[in-house]
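Reminder: ligand-aware prediction takes two inputs, not one.
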Amino acid sequence: MIEPFDVVDLIRAKRDGGELTSPQIGWLVDAYTRGVVAEEQMSAWAMAVFLRGMAPREIRDLTFAMVESGERMSFAGLGRPTTDKHSTGGVGDKITLPLAPLVASFGVAVPQLSGRGLGHTGGTLDKLESIPGWRARLSNEEFLDQLRDVGAVIAAAGSGLAPADGRLYALRDITGTVECIPLIASSIMSKKIAEGTASLVLDVKFGSGAFLRDPEAGRALAETMVRLGRDAGVGTVALLTNMQTPLGRAIGNANEVRESVEVLAGGGPEDVVELTVALAREMLALAGQPDADVAGHLRGGQAMDVWRRMIAAQGGDPDAPLPVPRESETVVADRAGVLVDLPALPFGIAAWRLGAGRARKEDPVAHAAGIDLHVRIGDRVSAGQPLYTLHADDPARFARAHEALDGALRIGADGDPVHDGGPLVLDRIA
Ligand code: URA
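Here is what comes back for the chain with uracil:
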């Protein structure tokens, strides 16, 4: 086959700040998928994009080309509206666990294809796999049956959805080209568009524990993704949310499941409940139920009923005891005062070093490893009061976790500024 373009020309054009045409972008993605464009050429192109950016039309072309690289699911025959949520990832972000059954408890189907954690942000599937028996891999038929019978499914995304993105994301991970708005937006949206949901709510995070520290960069990412969703006919809304400090009190896997179950039982930390309710309202509004009594379904047990059915449908036992850590160490306050700094990133890194996350995608995770916070930012503490407990299966892991946390948590005096990053939900972008 004679190729219509020369990849070196396309790399040069991007390197020099030019725009690629739609046929050029379509060809580049297709040729990369076919192995005609080599990994090192795609890396050079990704770095050129990282440095030069992309026009909105180029981002759209890249997204749709990645959608076209694989299969597209459809829920048209389901007979009820579908809605999904995607979070750009953060520390202690277990929101999908209570959110999917909560939204499904209103009769709306939630097809949630999730990933595993890489680096300091945990993965939803890793958390759920701490439930004995629970299985992430479902066939397309099992997925659809569960969506029809239970209404909520959280399962592993198969390699058939946007496979070009799978390869490009792995390449970006090892070439310093992850933190780039056009590439993040096209990566996330290609998978969500291929998944076939009718509507989508994006939780775009900013702050210490997020991909993008700066709220304005988060806003630009949110606007780019909302535009892509609209262009694909998927009703899309984004909330711009604060990830300066960890969400909730649990960071890990099994402990995050425990905290999610508390939320489903009508309790749980305030911030986790607030964000779960805010995202559920947006999802239900997109699915035609703007007045749903969302908090009522947490208090009334309807969301918990769906959770139990959702876990059982995938082989899990919702009543089984969760794994417990072999070793724990608690850190206490060395003086009295106010907690003025509790940044998410060092806690995410520490949890990862304790074994809750993985360094390479084939590594296993320790389900009981992680951190339980006993205090929240802004709390007043006394000398000797427990601040947080580290959990690991292997005690050799504690030293490096303590190192990550050294100096991270700061105790100040009354009146000192508290670095909490501001409100939990900063803005809504539609
Ligand atoms: N998640 C993705 O799926 N892709 C990115 O580029 C970043 C986060």
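Residues 169, 178, 183-184, 187-188 surround uracil (CB under 6 Å). Residues 7-53 form a domain with the Transferase, Pyrimidine Nucleoside Phosphorylase; Chain A, domain 3 fold (CATH 1.20.970.10). We will return to this case in the review session.
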